[in-house]
Specification:
Elements (H helix, E strand, L loop, with lengths): L2 H7 L12 H15 L3 E2 L1 E3 L4 H4 L4 E3 L1 H10 L5 E3 L4 H10 L5 E3 L15 H15 L3 E6 L4 H9 L3 E3 L4 H11 L2 E5 L2 H10 L7 E5 L4 E3 L9 E4 L11 H10 L4 E4 L5 H6 L2 E2 L2 H10 L5 E5 L2 H10 L4 E4 L15 H12 L6 E2 L3 H15 L3
Parallel strand pairs: 1-4, 2-3, 4-5, 6-7, 6-8, 8-11, 9-11, 12-13, 12-14, 14-15
Antiparallel strand pairs: 5-16, 9-10
Helix pairs in contact: 2-14, 4-5, 7-15
Length: about 375
């Protein structure tokens, strides 16, 4: 579902929530959670606001939360505090009796929206003509169910930022070339770590339907979809240079959704889980500049008070679509359940779900 379709489907938040105090809303959320017990499960992504995370039954990354949702068989309602593609994955993995709810349908992901099926079908046809049957598609889990299904249908798989290297190694045992969707930066950084030179990487531009590459196309090993995370792309080489000059003792750790240049200049790079664990294990009194979403960076600073934790980009804002999920929308979703209604239900088409599961299972078998 595109961002436009989500906005069109979204019902406006009732005015009564603007008239309630934070305390009143928090009390109502606790009341409903206590009333329903295990029948309601609230997973909260690491990038969510504290006002939402405080009520999460589990926190984690997108795939982890979808798996935990599936494991909670007693939960009839999964109120997913994340973005649309995450709720889709939860719906794919959960049982038929479980209903997945996204508190605000406008909580999408700009990266996931950078690869739609019309674009992907056109790209696949063009690339097949150019490279024949030598390509395997891989998609980052930060993609729509339809893109996951596309990869499942063509023998490919999903990847996470934690296992992308392992999955890329596997993919090269299957085919000569890889189409990596939708985040070019994670694909480029992972392939480079495997020893694939940049000159063997091409970029597919879905807007112009064009392969961007200078050289002999027979040398292409990785075809990177021209997509990116609007948050992580805002961490720059200039941010690092300024920090090195002003505070050379500060450790710089970034997410692999950052650009290749930023990842190469950082001290450490890894998934959200890697960043969390690295700071947890870091010695007291050390300084850390973190290149990832601001809600998580602030939370890490609040947790690790024995260390100095700041954002690599001092002017960074939180992810706008993640921030769509707030306390009023969470309460609205819960009160609707109490009234016997399900607002903003996420339901993936059965055929799409079957093929998406193929892509997920190929990854999970090798995780």
């Amino acid at each position: 579902m595109s961002m436009l379709e989500m906005i069109e489907k979204q019902t406006l938040l009732p005015k009564k929530y603007a008239q309630m105090s934070v305390q009143q809303m928090e009390e109502r959320v606790r009341e409903i959670k206590n009333k329903y017990g295990n029948r309601i499960y609230i997973p909260g992504h690491h990038y969510q606001k504290d006002e939402v995370i405080q009520f999460s039954d589990s926190t984690g990354d997108s795939l982890q939360l979808a798996q935990l949702s599936a494991q909670n068989k007693d939960a009839e309602y999964i109120v997913f505090c994340g973005v649309h593609f995450m709720a889709e994955t939860a719906d794919i993995l959960t049982a038929d009796h479980q209903e997945v709810i996204l508190p605000d349908m406008r909580a999408g992901c700009s990266m996931a929206d950078m690869a739609d099926m019309d674009q992907t079908d056109r790209a696949w046809d063009a690339l097949q003509k150019k490279f024949s049957d030598t390509i395997l598609p891989l998609t980052y889990v930060n993609s729509t169910a339809a893109i996951k299904a596309f990869c499942g249908r063509h023998g490919g798989a999903t990847v996470t930022s934690s296992n992308a290297k392992k999955m890329l190694e596997w993919a090269f045992t299957q085919k000569e070339r890889i189409l990596f969707l939708p985040d070019q930066h994670l694909g480029r950084n992972t392939a480079f770590d495997l020893g694939i030179p940049l000159e063997h990487m091409a970029v597919w531009d879905p807007i112009s339907d064009k392969l961007e590459y200078e050289g002999n196309v027979e040398d292409v090993k990785i075809i990177l979809w021209k997509g990116h995370c609007s948050v992580h792309e805002k961490f720059t080489v200039e941010n690092i240079k300024e920090l090195r000059a002003s505070s050379p003792e500060t450790n710089i750790i970034v997410h692999p959704e950052c650009s290749h240049e930023v990842v190469q200049l950082a001290d450490y790079a890894g998934s959200t889980h890697y960043i969390i664990e690295k700071l947890k294990a870091a010695p007291a009194n050390t300084k850390w500049a973190v290149g990832t979403e601001m809600n998580l960076v602030k939370r890490l600073g609040q947790i690790h008070t024995d260390k100095v934790v700041t954002s690599l980009n001092p002017n960074m804002c939180p992810c706008l679509t993640m921030n769509r999920i707030d306390l009023p929308h969470l309460l609205w979703s819960l009160e609707a359940i109490e009234e016997g209604k399900v607002l903003n239900k996420i339901k993936v088409d059965e055929d799409v779900a079957k093929e998406a599961i193929l892509a997920l299972e190929r990854m999970l078998q090798r995780a």
